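[audit] Reproducing an earlier prediction to check determinism. Same input, same settings, fresh worker. If the tokens differ from the archived copy the diff job will pick it up downstream; this log only records the rerun itself.
[audit] input (245 residues):
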Amino acid sequence: MKIYTNKTKETEILSIEEWCKECPPKNKVKQWVDGRSAMETAKFWTSLEKQSDFLAFMRKKESSIAFDYAIPELANKFDDYRSPRKTDLCLFGNQEDERIFISIEGKADESFGEYIDKEWISSIFEKIKKVHSRKLDRIINLYQRFGAKADFLNLRYQLTYWLAGAIEEAIGNEIKKVYLIVQVFESGKTEEKKIKKNEQDFNNFINFISKSKIDIIERNEIIGPINNDFTRNLDLYIGKYHVKL
């Protein structure tokens, strides 16, 4: 599978050095180091052998899945505000005669951001200081998008806009089948306690999105489809893929 810098597919990425140059993480100094998800994602996906390993994982759920191409740090716009959601790796593929979209979020033991209730409060203060700040508007829109339910405030902010971005990316490409996959990199530099906390937050998110139909997802498992108004009636699959470094 080829990896490109953008949707024009004019420039191919063949190494982690090219990945870092063309599609760097937001904070290169902090994130582009061994054992952290940004660099490990690049190492993994620039390896054809590792790509094959991941494809085998996906085919445990659907045997006919094939990969077409991927783009790192692709902006998945889900509202009209600046700074759209950037996804670690967006993978476009097919399943028999149907196109699929796979949105991959790399994690070592970094959290999924802050909880929404805290982000909501901080965004209010940010709005007071900077009248043109639109973060509060974005959070309110997400709150309304996902049913205006109190339980939404207990979710991790990063997970909700990851989902919103993936859904809108799929809709924009007329794709009806979406996979959200957390790719976890475990090593001597990660803390099991933090990884387990992420698992708990991820399970809470899945329970919310599935409207309490699914409580838990195991490591190296894909669940779904989830199909409801939260997913804009697309078929949503959610998975976790663990890599031991």
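[audit] rerun output stored. Observation attached for the diff report: The chain has one domain: 2-113+156-244.
[audit] end
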